[in-house]
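Researcher: We're reviewing a set of sequences before deciding which ones to prioritize for further study. For each one, I'd like a predicted 3D structure that I can look through quickly. This is Helix-turn-helix transcriptional regulator. If possible, include the structure in token form so it fits the rest of the review sheet.
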Amino acid sequence: MVKCNLSALMGAKKLKISDVVRATDINRSTVSRLYHETTTRIDFDTLETLCNYLECQPGELLEIV
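Model: Here's the predicted structure for Helix-turn-helix transcriptional regulator, in token form for your review sheet.
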């Protein structure tokens, strides 16, 4: 199973979903699904944009558990 650590990374930086949406132009529903770990896939463009914005590597955002 793949776990998304977006909520933890955002919490560490005290960011809201709206902050991420505004800064990255990623669709709000996409960010929300990743935040709540209800998504079933992620596009490479979205992954790259989030990693650049959060200053992290893909392995920090996604992990296999």
